[in-house]
Amino acid sequence: MTTLNALETPAALIDTQRLQRNIERMQARMDTLGVRFRPHVKTAKCPNVTQAQIAAGARGITVSTLKEAEQFFESGITDILYAVGISIDKLPRALALLEKGCDLKLIVDNIDTARAIGEFGKAHDATFEVWIEIDTDGHRSGIKPDDEALLEIARELQDSGMTMGGIMTHAGSSYDYHTPEALREIAEQERAGAVRAAQRLREAGLPCPVVSVGSTPTALSAEHLDGVTEVRAGVYALFDLVMHNVGVCALDDIALSVLTTVIGHQEEKGWAVVDAGWMAMSRDRGTQKQTHDFGFGQVCTEDGTVLEGYILSGANQEHGILSHVGETDHDIRNRFPIGTRLRILPNHACATGAQHPHYAALTSDESVDIWPRFYGW
Amino acid sequence: MTTLNALETPAALIDTQRLQRNIERMQARMDTLGVRFRPHVKTAKCPNVTQAQIAAGARGITVSTLKEAEQFFESGITDILYAVGISIDKLPRALALLEKGCDLKLIVDNIDTARAIGEFGKAHDATFEVWIEIDTDGHRSGIKPDDEALLEIARELQDSGMTMGGIMTHAGSSYDYHTPEALREIAEQERAGAVRAAQRLREAGLPCPVVSVGSTPTALSAEHLDGVTEVRAGVYALFDLVMHNVGVCALDDIALSVLTTVIGHQEEKGWAVVDAGWMAMSRDRGTQKQTHDFGFGQVCTEDGTVLEGYILSGANQEHGILSHVGETDHDIRNRFPIGTRLRILPNHACATGAQHPHYAALTSDESVDIWPRFYGW
User: Fold this and answer.
1) What is residue A12's predicted lDDT score, i.e. its pLDDT?
2) pLDDT, tens only, A194-249
3) Which among B206, B238, B235, B232 has a CA at the least distance from the CA of B83?
4) A180, A189, A375, B85: which has the highest count of C-beta atoms within 10 A?
5) Is B179 exposed, middle or buried (0-12, 13-18, 19+ CB in 10 A)?
6) A-B interface: how many C-beta pairs under 8 angstroms?
7) 3-state class of B357 per DSSP?
8) Can you list the residues of chain B whose pLDDT is less than 70?
C-alpha cells in the first residue's frame, strides 16, 4: 500500500468508489431485466476488478484472448466465454483449459471453423461447447439471424458431437450513437436479432439454451430483454470519454485516469507539457468524430476535479501537450507550474489500461493499492 | 528457438535481415557525416536490437523513460541520455543510477527544473550532467536558440555545481514532410538552430561540449552536420508506414510486422476478419493524414510479400478488418480462406511494438528467436 502523492507519474489510477458504483449500477439493471450478467474482462485485465464484478452478482466472464482465459481460470473462475472466433491453431490451448476443468465456451461464425473444431474435438476425445456468433448490426463478425448458414453450422456441431451452447451477438455499432432513442433502438435490434436466431434454431429442432447479447451502451439502454438469457459488457466498469459522449455515463463516473506531472511550458502557445504522452494514454482518438472531441484526454486536478476546457491536445511518446480548447491560455505557466500533478480522463479505458503494467487503486482520498494487470496473448 | 509456422498469432515479427540493413545504413551515414550516433532505444525497448546498434558503431543510447535507463544500464550500457524533461519527483531514481555508475545525462528546458536539479544534486552530494533542450521547430518542448533563458539556465546549472554537458534538439515536425527538399530544409533548420544555441553559450563563456540533434527523417536527409557532435534517431531501425510516407524508407525496409490469422469473412462487404486488432497493431493512425492512408496497416503474405491494395481498414480490440481499398473484393473468402496467415506492416513501429511482450525475430526464412521487450515506467 502506498499513497496518492507518493506515486511516480505517469500512473494509471482507478477510483475504486466509482468502480464499485459502476459495477453495482450495471448489476442492478441486469437483475431488474431478469438476465444473467457475464462481464467482459478485457477492459481491465485485472483480477481485483473481476472479483468485484463477481461479488456483485456476475456469473461467468467473457474474454477476448486465451491468455485472459488462462489467467482468470488460474484465479478460480471456471465459466468463461472466449468471445473472438477461434483460429484453428489455438485449439490445443483451448483443449488444455478444458482438460484442467475450465468450462470454456468457444464461438464460431463459419462452417470451416465449426468443422475444424469438431474434427479436433473428436480426434482428442474432447467435447467443446460452442456458441454461434450472430451479426445483428453489420459491425464486424457473425452471421445474419436469417442466414441459412446458421442451421448448417449448428447441425455440423451437433453431428460432430460438440455441444451447441447457444448464440451470442455484440452490437458494437452502439458506440456510434448518442441519443437515448437511438440507443434504445439499437438495443432492441440487438435483442430481436439474437432472439430470432435462437427461434430459428429451436424451430429446426436444434438446441439453443443461451441467448447472449451485449455492449455497454445497449446493456444500459434496453427497455426489455425478453428471450435473452444473458448480457455481456466490459467498459461500463471503468467508463471513459467515448462512453460519456455516447451518453451512458457522466464525467464523474469515469473511474480510470492517468496521473501526470507538468514538466515544461510553451507560454506563447498556451501549452503545458506533461509526462503522460501516448504511451500512457494510448493512441486512441475515439472522441475525434464524436460530438465532443477531448483530444487525448480531459484534464482534471490531482484530486479529480474536471478542469473544463483543458484537454491533452497532442501527444508524443512520453510528452503530452495540455492546452485550452478555446482561447490560448497565456497564463498557462502560472496556472500549471512545473511539478503540478494532474489526472487525465482517457478516451478509451480498454486502450489506456493496456499501456500500463498495473493500476494504482485509490481506496480512499489518499491510500493506494497496487492492482496487477497483464497483457499479451 | 522456434519456427515461423509454429508461432501463435497475433505475434510481433522482426525481420532481422532488414533490421541489420537499416542499422548499417544509418551508421554508415553518420560515419560519413562525421558525427557520433546515439540511437533512441524507445522504439524497440529490446536489448537484442540495441546490441546490434552498438555492434554497428553506436556510442551511447537515448531513452524516453527511467525504466529504459535502468534496464539498459543493467544490460551493460553506461552512456545514457534521458531525453524527456525530468519531473522533479523522479530525481531520486536518477540519483540511484548515478550512484551505481551510470553516466546518465538529464535534459532541462526551464529554470525551475534546473534549479531543482541543482538543489537536489547539492543536497545529495551528486553532480548531474545536464543538457539544455532547444526548440528548433516549434514541435513540443525546448527553448528557442535565441531565448535569453538559455544563458540563464546554463548559469544556474554552473552555479549549482552541475555539469553543463551541452544542448540537444529534436525536429519532430520532420514527420510532417514528404519531399527530399522539405526534409533537407528541416534538417538544416534543426542543425542551424542547435549550432546557434551552442554558439551563444560559448560566446557567453559557458561550456557546450555536446551539440546533439536528430530524428529519423532529418538524420537521413541532412546534407552536412557542421557544428553537430552527435545524432539521435530511433524508428529507423525498424521503420514503418509513416516513415515510408515521409519518404525515407521503402516498404521492404520495414522490419516490423504483425503475424495474424484469418478467422472469418463478411463476403458481401469484401471483408476478411483477422485476429490482429488494435491490441496487436496499436491504435496509431499515423498515416491517416499522410499522402497514403494505410488504415491500421498494410497486408502482406506470410512470407512478407506486399499485397497491394489490401489494408487493415478497421480494428476492434482483437479483430482486424481486412479489405481492398478500391473495389469491394467479393472473392475475399477464396483469396484469404479461414486459417490464412498474413503479415501486417504497422503505421508506427514504436506504438505497435509497445503492445507486445516480446518479438519473434526471424533469423532466416523460417527460424525464429524470441527477443524480450519491456514496458512501463
Assistant:
1) 98
2) 999 999 999 999 999 999 999 999 999 999 999 999 999 999 999 999 999 999 99
3) B232
4) B85
5) exposed
6) 150
7) coil
8) none
Q: Do domains B17-236 and B251-372 have the same CATH topology?
A: no
The CA-based angle A168-A153-A138, given to 5 degrees, is 45
Residue with grid cell 492492482, as numbered in its chain: A371
Cell triple for B110: 526551464
Look at the block and give the residue holding cell 491560455: A329
Q: CB distance from A285 to chain B under 8 Å?
A: yes
Using the structure block, give the residue that is written with the C-alpha cell 442492478. A28
Q: Where are the domains of chain B?
A: 17-236, 251-372
Cell of A139: 459491425
Cell of A67: 491468455
Interface check for A319 against chain B (CB to CB < 8 A): the answer is yes
Q: Does B39 touch chain A (CB under 8 A)?
A: no
Task: Return d(Cα B375, Cα A177) in angstroms, integer.
Answer: 35
Query: Could you tell me which of B89, B134, B90, B81 has the C-alpha nearest to residue B110?
Result: B134
Interface check for B356 against chain A (CB to CB < 8 A): the answer is yes
pLDDT at A372 over 90: yes
Q: Render B170-196 in DSSP notation, one character per residue.
A: --GGGGG--SHHHHHHHHHHHHHHHHH
Per-residue cell: B289? 493524414
What does the pLDDT read at residue B364?
Answer: 85
Q: A110 CB near a chain B CB, below 8 Å?
A: yes
Give the Cα separation of B313 and B347 in Å (integer).
12
Reported ipTM: the value is 0.97
What CATH code is assigned to B251-372? 2.40.37.20
What are B260-302's pLDDT values in tens digits?
999 999 999 999 999 999 999 999 999 999 999 999 999 999 9
Nearest to A8 by CA among A356, A365, A305: A356
Which top CATH class is A20-235?
alpha beta
**Interatomic CA distance for residues B139 and B172, integer angstroms:** 6
The H or E element that residue A278 is part of is helix A278-281
Strand order in the sheet with B163-169: B36-37, B230-231, B210-213, B163-169, B129-134, B103-108, B79-82, B61-63
CA distance B244 to B247: 5
pLDDT in tens, B7-21: 999 999 999 999 999
Beta strand pairing call for B129-134 and A367-372: unpaired
Locate B357 and state its grid cell. 511482450
Contacts of A272 in chain B (CB under 8 A): none
Nearest to B318 by CA among B273, B349, B363: B273
Q: What pLDDT does residue B1 have? A: 78
Look up the CATH superfamily of B17-236.
Alanine racemase (3.20.20.10)
Q: Which residues of A touch B263 (CB under 8 A)?
A: 84-87, 113, 141
Which chain B residues are within 8 Å of A261, Cβ to Cβ? 87, 89
